Amino acid sequence: MNLDPKIPEGPLSQKWSNHKFNMRLVNPANRRKYNIIVVGSGLAGSSAAASLAEQGYNVSCFCYQDSPRRAHSIAAQGGINAAKNYQNDGDSIQRLFYDTIKGGDYRSREANVYRLAEVSSNIIDQCVAQGVPFAREYGGLLANRSFGGAQVSRTFYARGQTGQQLLLGAYSSLNRQIGAGKVKMYTRHEMLDLVLIHGHAKGIIVRNLITGKISRHAADCVVLASGGYGNVFYLSTNAQGCNVTATFRAFKRGAGFANPCFTQIHPTCIPVHGEDQAKLTLMSESLRNDGRVWVPKSKAVAEKIRSGILDPNSLAECDRDYYLERKYPSFGNLAPRDISSRSANEVCLEGRGVASTGLGVYLDFRDAISRDGEQVIRERYGNLFEMYNRITGEDPYCKPMMIFPAVHYTMGGLWVDYNLQSTIPGLFVAGEANFSDHGANRLGASALMQGLADGYFVIPYTVGNYLGELGISQAGFNDIKSEAFSSTESEVIKRLEDLISIKGTRSPRSFHKELGKIIWDHCGMERSRKSLEEAIQKLDKLKIDFEKDLRVVGHSKTLNAELERAGRVSDFIGFGQLMCRDALMREESCGGHFRKEYQTNEGEALRDDSKYAFVGVWEFLGDGEEPKMHKEPLCFENVQLGTRSYK
Amino acid sequence: MRLNLKIWRQESGQASGRFVDYMVENISHDSSFLEMLDTLNEELIKKNDLPVSFDHDCREGICGMCSLVINGEPHGPEKATTTCQLHMRHFRDGDTITIEPWRANAFPVVKDLVTDRSAFDSIMQAGGFITARTGSAVDANEIPIAKGIADKAMDAAACIGCGACVAACPNASAMLFTGAKVSHLNRLPQGKPEKERRSILMVSAMDKAGFGGCTNIGACESVCPKSINLDVISHLNRDYQGASMKRIFHF
Questions:
Q1: A426-465 in b/e burial notation, b at 16+ Cβ within 10 A?
Q2: Please, what is the average pLDDT of chain A?
Q3: For the residues of B177-205, what is the DSSP string, one character each?
């Protein structure tokens, strides 16, 4: 597997501009001769499709939702980072670069991260030009807020709906191109496989989710922007339809999958209420600015609270354990996501959790309300408190809010080089679907930045370079009658028929739930050799059960949500095994990957830079074969590796 | 709790539909409405019956994919709440709940409770954008915008495109949806150059898609899960009339 990252020569700050100059261009008159497929219509997909179409290429864009505007980028709340330094507080490209590398626990590629920081400012300009209604000050200029993991105020936001407004901006640009006939939009279409011709990605096989019709689509190259794989946990903050199928199918066709074990667990979500729960909801991290996190000091008291005998407000100060303030006095309740999540899990494992399930801790605004008054707190967090009240039926102004960590984002993804090209030539990967920028942990407000950086400012250049290298004689590939297309299509049809023909007793959802529980228990906030080896065994068994006992009612020639879920769960099971293997291989703790065996005496993550400063990239060798791991060494020339400390 | 459900079942757009009665038991008060339907579907699968098709995705009230007319009200009884954010504690044990799809000519039923809302996308494609080619933007702070204007634009931009406004309107008008986008973009300095063109193109796309006219009933506003205000319709009417006058008299 060729893992040459193709990092351009020259000093860090000039790599991208040098590279842009050295890349091949396609003459404007020739661009209309090329076809490009974009899978996914979130921030990365919409922005890439729109920008490529503006340049003159013919773009086909696919999404499984009924409109491109529904992609899950829409749910991001907090904001988007950019090194504008509008606050005059010492921000710079260099600082955003450094914060992102450090926040990622030194497991990302310097050159990619630097470029991300470099184009971050252009993103804000672009969004404002499109009419994104960012928050403003009375003077009419843009407002900023601060976010975890940074000491400068560089986050731009649109109330608690930043993702929505940025996506609607990208969607509006996409719409302009659809209206102009440069983008052909395929809604309610799901990509089920990738087609390779002479080793290059040249098309996809999709299923029309309404009619069930399988069709072939050819192009000169393919851009995957299909999002992350958080739903491997069943319960996550992802949308119901988010899935790993597009990237996992590409993996099976030869694309390397990088760092699948790097997943982010967000500390402030609403706790699980019961067995029927299908979705977890995030409460913005900003709440930790004023809320104090605690659980009772004793197990007995916690039990009384859980059974409803004791009112938490009546608990004396000396009976409360503000564990984050106790353990991390300088960062307190604002400790980073991975540390806060793990601490919450620890106290719950000790039996001191407070939700009815025992899995919840308090985020208490009592002190903030008595200090600043209810009105001030209402102004700051009113919409979040309302949302909490709507979901739980409890009033956080009077009763402490309950929170628990939940899976939120996945840093791992398909391996890409500096050009965002995977190990398959002609297959580009953008946004959460690739692994490129966040290392082992993502900082808040950086996901939106990366999605749009890839889509607006990287893909349009690097795809052009690839097409330029192909040459105009190769342009306009559209031979869907070739052997590669027909055999891939037959495989897709067979897989669907196989799922329907099992005719067992268990629904796809029941398997998804079981899978999620295995992954959460064994490869969640804490992992160990033992838990991971167990998980791999359990997943082997789950796979056998799935293939024997799955029940998909209905047929494949119609809208059939059960068939859709069955296909996705099948890929998630295979992917779950890969994830556990990766976690087992990485014998260190870093960022979102915490191996019990590798921690300091104080219980903090213990990185092993001498052995594990590399990207773990997995190659598929065939069904039933163990995948093979390759290494891309990470060289740090511009930052010094340090230990994160938040004490 | 135990509930009686009357659910609209329709095999396809061409088939005729009917209400079918179901009963679900052991529903937790803390479940969401869609989790209740998940439970029903799991029960149906156990019996080898076809589950009920319904649209949903983010389940946090922002993607706009969920719909459902619940007891005659789009998104159900709670104010400013999408179906996915509606929880079962607002119902009582033994209640009968009627569940239907959006009903409007421009939103044909696809299957059961699923409708085709691509007509909304066609309105957006006609003019719901500011022409700003990637890479052509000036520095963001070169366009100062008064906070009040930015806030009002944001109020209108909060629309999630669910279509409840159309489902609630006796005329199946899409004026609240179209008005929200026009009001968001026409208000901002970046949106001014295309203001007139946008208003005319979006209204004509709306008419072409088969939505009805607005007769100021206001049902749209009352069911809107994002509390989009009727003011956006006045804004649209004003800009549309202004633009039409200009076209007629060529100024």
A1: bbbbbbbbbbbbbbbbbbbbbbbbbbbbbbbbbbbbbbbb
A2: 95
A3: HHHHHHHHHHHSGGGGGGHHHHHHHHHHH
Residues A624, A530 share a domain: yes
Cβ atoms < 10 Å from Cβ of A319: 12
Q: Are B22 and B9 in contact (CB under 8 A)?
A: no
Please, are residues A53 and A64 in contact by the beta-carbon 8 Å criterion? no
- A227-253 pLDDT tens trace: 999 999 999 999 999 999 999 999 999
Q: Which residues of A touch B185 (CB under 8 A)?
A: 131
Residues B201 and B183: their CA atoms lie apart, in Å, by: 14
By Cβ distance, the residue of B32, B62, B188 closest to A161 is B62
Give me the residues of A, 96-155, that contact B with CB < 8 A: 122, 124-131, 133-142
> What 3-state DSSP class applies to A331?
coil
Kind and range of the H or E run holding A39: strand A35-39
The two beta strands, A58-62 and A35-39, are parallel
Distance (Å, rounded) from C-alpha B226 to C-alpha A4?
48
Q: What are phi and psi of A205, to 5 degrees?
A: -110, 130
Q: What percent of chain A has pLDDT over 90?
A: 89
Which ranges in chain B are annotated with CATH 1.10.1060.10? 117-249
Chain A residues with beta carbon closer than 8 angstroms to that of B178: none
Closest by CA position to A74, among listed A158, A164, A170? A164
Are residue A499 and residue A386 in the same domain, yes or no?
no
Tokens 């009612």 belong to A553
Q: State in Å, rounded, how far the first CA of chain B is from the last one.
A: 65
Who has greater pLDDT, A273 or A493? A493
Per residue in A90-133, pLDDT (tens digit) is: 999 999 999 999 989 999 999 999 999 999 999 999 999 999 99
Per-residue confidence (pLDDT) for residue A145, from 0 to 100: 86
A611 inside domain? yes
What percentage of chain A carries pLDDT values higher than 70? Answer: 100
In a domain? residue A459: no
Q: Are residues A494 and A584 in the same domain?
A: yes
**ipTM for the assembly:** 0.98
Final residue of a domain: which of A361, A388, A405?
A: A405
What are the residues whose beta carbons fall under 8 Å from the beta carbon of A100, sequence distance 6 or more? Answer: A108, A113, A116, A117, A437, A438, A443, A446
Angle at CA A582, nearest 5°, toward A194 and A519?
90
* Residue B171 token pair: 């005329």
Q: In this structure, what CATH number is given to the domain that contains residue A586? A: 1.20.58.100
| Domain stop point among A405, A433, A455 | A405
Residue A630: φ, ψ to 5°: -120, 160
- The residue behind tokens 């963001």 is B140
What letter represents residue A42's amino acid? G
Domain of A577?
483-633
DSSP states along B36-82: HHHHHHHHHHHTTPPPPP---SSSSS-S-----EETTEET-SSTT--
Residue A328 neighbours by CB under 8 Å, 6+ apart:
A335, A339, A646, A647
Q: What is the residue-wise DSSP string for B151-169?
A: HHHHHHHT-----HHHHH-
Tell me the two tokens of residue A453. 């950086």
B103-140 pLDDT per residue, tens: 999 999 999 999 999 999 999 999 999 999 999 999 99
The third-level CATH classification (topology) of the domain covering B117-249 is Fumarate Reductase Iron-sulfur Protein; Chain B, domain 2 (1.10.1060)
Q: What is the CATH number of domain B3-111?
A: 3.10.20.30
- B21 vs B25: CA distance, rounded Å: 14
Is residue A76 within 8 A of residue A447, CB to CB? The reply is yes
Is A176 labeled as catalytic in the residue annotation? no
Residue range(s) occupied by CATH 3.10.20.30 in chain B:
3-111
Whether residues A131 and B185 touch (CB distance < 8 A) is answered with yes
> Catalytic pick from A115, A249, A288, A337?
A337
